[in-house]
UniProtKB/TrEMBL annotation:
Belongs to the binding-protein-dependent transport system permease family. SUPFAM superfamilies: MetI-like (SSF161098). The keyword Cell membrane applies. The lineage of its organism: Bacteria, Pseudomonadati, Pseudomonadota, Alphaproteobacteria, Hyphomicrobiales. It is found in: Cell membrane. It comes from Devosia limi DSM 17137. It is a multi-pass membrane protein. This is Glutathione ABC transporter permease. One of its GO terms (cellular component) is plasma membrane. The keyword Aminoacyl-tRNA synthetase does not apply. Residues 96-301 form the ABC transmembrane type-1 domain.
Length: 314
């Protein structure tokens, strides 16, 4: 319990720091959100700008603005969109599920396939098949996700014209259509993660297989699968889980680009549109939500450390 409480305290400190950074960085974006909003509808005058600034709270000192914003955020009120007039929480809720699905599927695909690939490379070290897989992993690290996504769209359009590769359909409406549209984005987004994690598992497994307890297990007549997947893999999972937590943050960032490539209406497209419109409340809230998700993933990773290796909590 002491270990969990210390991690929760760290989590709160990080979230507080992130909220300050997000709040300040948004105000450094060039341009005047109020002037841009007025320019789309009516003549821009100092009086109109002052009136709208007072209505959205931009006329107050910056410390007061932050205090009001963070207090409202703690109550679930992240503000109102400057363009649609809808609550920001509604805007995010309408676009968050495609991003969650894309990120979760990418993590499951990348991390799930990295373990058997890494174990195979460690077990078949020096053989031709292992060298081929390792070269493929290196290639996966060097290929940009957006380029792979564009190429895969062209390939599908040429050889499988009947397959839908763009857009998004909710899973509950059309499960088959949803999975069909998510295959290419998931592969494009998770390939660098898969390549990196498989190489990491290989290195950790090679180190674990050279330990004394592995030699002892072999001397006692333990089977190959038991040695690899029970004894060696358990100790190799700690650096693996660490990298999964970090990779989740990169996946959230990469999802912004992949959503643009595959026309997926997720948080990535939402935040890019909000930045172009200088929609401060929407940008702040979206970045805060994505950062919170990244911090929570790493918090869960910290807890998994204690499950895999009880010495961590001590």
């Amino acid at each position: 319990m002491r270990f969990i409480m210390s991690r929760i305290a760290d989590l709160l400190v990080v979230l507080f720091g992130v909220s300050i950074v997000v709040f300040l960085m948004i105000r450094l974006i060039p341009g005047d959100a109020v002037a841009i909003m007025l320019g789309a509808n009516t003549e821009i005058t100092p009086e109109r700008i002052a009136e709208l600034e007072a209505r959205v709270g931009l006329d107050k000192p910056i410390l007061v603005q932050y205090g009001q914003w963070i207090w409202n955020a703690l109550q679930g009120n992240l503000g109102t969109s400057l363009w649609t007039g809808r609550p920001v929480t509604q805007e995010i809720a309408a676009n968050i599920w495609p991003t969650i699905e894309l990120t979760v599927l990418s993590i499951l695909f990348g991390a799930g396939l990295a373990i058997p690939l890494g174990c195979f490379m460690a077990e078949a070290r020096g053989k031709g098949a292992e060298v081929a897989v390792r070269i493929g992993a290196i290639a996966g690290l060097t290929i940009p996700s957006f380029w792979l996504g564009i190429v895969s769209i062209f390939m599908v359009a040429k050889f499988l014209p009947g397959v839908q590769a763009l857009g998004y359909v909710p899973f509950h409406q059309d499960p088959l259509g949803n999975l069909q549209r998510m295959i290419l984005p998931v592969i494009a987004l998770s390939l660098p993660m898969l390549a990196n994690l498989s190489r990491l598992v290989r290195s950790a497994m090679l180190d674990a297989l050279n330990q004394d307890y592995i030699r002892t297990a072999k001397a006692k007549g333990a089977g190959r699968r038991r040695i690899i997947y029970k004894h060696a893999l358990r100790n190799a999972l700690i650096p693996f889980i660490t990298s999964v937590g970090v990779a989740a943050g990169y996946l959230l960032g990469g999802a912004i680009v992949i959503e643009q490539v595959f026309a997926i209406p997720g948080l990535g497209r939402l935040v890019l549109g909000a930045i172009a419109e200088r929609n401060y409340p929407l940008v702040q809230a979206t970045i805060l939500v994505m950062t919170f998700a990244f911090v929570m993933v790493n918090f869960i990773v910290d807890l998994l450390y204690a499950v895999i290796d009880p010495r961590v909590s001590k």
